[in-house]
Structures are given as structure tokens and as C-alpha cells.
Design goal:
elongated; mainly alpha; 198 residues
């Protein structure tokens, strides 16, 4: 196996172990030694890839954001013929599907990252702003297409992020259930909030 593949596998093991440890113990309860032991690596390997516990936590947050954003963009791109509103609906579906599939990472982002200091809070807010911008772009397109009335799409996007955040957080705190079952009601509510036709 090539050295780069070995290094990649080591980094991936550290990230997988960190996700499990943070999900089980929370940010404050987790220590680097826990991550090293769970990954069956060494402290040297840990510090080769990450500067600190906060560094690996930020990496996990970034990976979740990239996974959701990539999935949303792919769903939007694949949605053809339905117009801007169909693309927005596809994006909502992907967000909930990704949250259900990557529960531990979502818990880290939405529950563990809250109140952990300015650096982690800034990263969390940056991720929220990225998603709000993504939603806003497609709401703007829906306005241009005449699918929804002219409105403050930035405010609507922020409200949608807040609603998604709350629905997913409540699902996490209730320890599961079928998150996708909430999609029809949430979708209807959000589309109604922007004046979309039934």
C-alpha cells in the first residue's frame, strides 16, 4: 500500500474514532487519549494530522457541512423540469436524509458545538450562513421564475435554517425515530411560509 493511502487510512480512523467519542462523551468529556485509543493509533499520529482536540472537532464539523452541501447541490442539479421550487424541495429532502444517515456528525454540529467558545461558535455560524446562502439562491430563482411572490429571501432562508435546525435537534434529543416522516409536514409548512402554491 502506498504511503499516502496509509496516511489517509490513519487520518480516517482518527476522524471516525473522534466522531464516536464526541458523540458518546460530548466535547468536554472527550480527551485526545480516548480518540487515540479508539482509533488504535498514536498520539504522534493524532498530532501529525490535527493540532488539538478542537482541531479535529472543527474538521468533523467541516466534513458534515461538505457532505450536506454536496448532497444538496447534487439533488438540485438532478432535479430537472420541476423549476426552482422542485429544486428547493429536493434540497430539503437531502438535508433530512443526510441528517438521518450521519446522526453522530449532526449531533456534533447541532448539539455539541453550541456554547463551546468563539472559534467553534464561529464555525457553526459559518456553516449555517453557507446553507442559508444556498437556500436563498434557489428562493431568488423561484421569485424570478414567478413560482413565489417577491420577498426578502435572505430572511426566509434564515427562517428555514432555524426551522431545520429545530426539527433535527428535537429529533436528536428524542433519540431517533423516522426523521424522513417529518418531511411532508415540514415541507408544506416551509413552502407555505414563502407563499408557494400548493
Amino acid at each position: 500500500m502506498a504511503r499516502s493511502a496509509v496516511e489517509s487510512a490513519t487520518r480516517d480512523r482518527l476522524l471516525a474514532a473522534a466522531m464516536d467519542i464526541f458523540a458518546a462523551k460530548g466535547y468536554h468529556g472527550a480527551i485526545v487519549d480516548d480518540i487515540v485509543a479508539a482509533s488504535r493509533t498514536s498520539k504522534g499520529a493524532f498530532y501529525h494530522y490535527f493540532p488539538s482536540k478542537q482541531g479535529i472537532f472543527l474538521t468533523l464539523m467541516g466534513e458534515l457541512a461538505a457532505a450536506v452541501e454536496g448532497g444538496v447541490e447534487a439533488a438540485i442539479e438532478a432535479e430537472s423540469g420541476g423549476g426552482a421550487l422542485a429544486k428547493v424541495e429536493a434540497a430539503l429532502r437531502v438535508v433530512l436524509e443526510t441528517a438521518a444517515a450521519r446522526r453522530d456528525l449532526v449531533k456534533i454540529l447541532l448539539v455539541e458545538a453550541v456554547g463551546l467558545g468563539p472559534t467553534l461558535e464561529w464555525k457553526r455560524l459559518e456553516i449555517h450562513a453557507r446553507f442559508a446562502g444556498l437556500i436563498q439562491r434557489h428562493l431568488d430563482r423561484a421569485v424570478v421564475d414567478g413560482a413565489i411572490p417577491a420577498q426578502d429571501t435572505a430572511l426566509a432562508a434564515q427562517a428555514w435554517i432555524g426551522a431545520l435546525n429545530e426539527v433535527i435537534t428535537q429529533w436528536l434529543m428524542a433519540n431517533g425515530g423516522d426523521l424522513s416522516a417529518r418531511l411532508p409536514g415540514l415541507q408544506a409548512l416551509l413552502l407555505r411560509s414563502i407563499g408557494a402554491p400548493r
